[in-house]
Amino acid sequence: MTIFLILAPYGVYAALMMVVSATLSLAVAAALCLAVVALDVVQGRSVKILGLGSAIVFAAVAAYLQLIDPRMSHSAVRLAVDCGIFALSLGSMLLRVPFTLQYAIEVVPPETAAIPGFLRANYVITGAWALSTLLMIVGNLMTLYVPGLPYWTGLAIAFAARNSALYFTRWYPEYRKTKDIAAQTAAAMSGQGS
To answer: Residues of 85-98 as b/e, b for ≥16 C-beta within 10 angstroms?
Structure first.
């Protein structure tokens, strides 16, 4: 359920971009981000960098469209949003709080969060989302600057990049866990042999 709430504003934004104005789709996405932040607060969880930051990105791009350039293309709007999300991902790592860490700490037992590789795993997963967003930026740049390239190409790249990051987010923690258990078992076995 958590991953659904995290991704819902982006899915709604992408779907609405096809049927309503970009400004309205961005405003709805910002409102959904704020609703998820409010839900976290009501349920006693922390305010997330990604949730609040995404609300700011969506609202800022909507304000830009409304006040400065209402004729901005859909590809340029997606590019602006993806650049903002990329900055959030990279910024969270530079601030030493990879955005996935805030979610992970709330769903794992304290002993799991205390494992030395836990923080490293969250850097890797956040890095995967940053890479995914970078690929979406490339897709948007292609639709803006490669003449004759179909509009759906950028959407296909975004879909593939986002789904790959989602798959990796689900796969990597189990992979790390299995690898860490194997390493602990090997260390224990070599300690018994001494």
So the answer is: bbebbbebbeeeeb
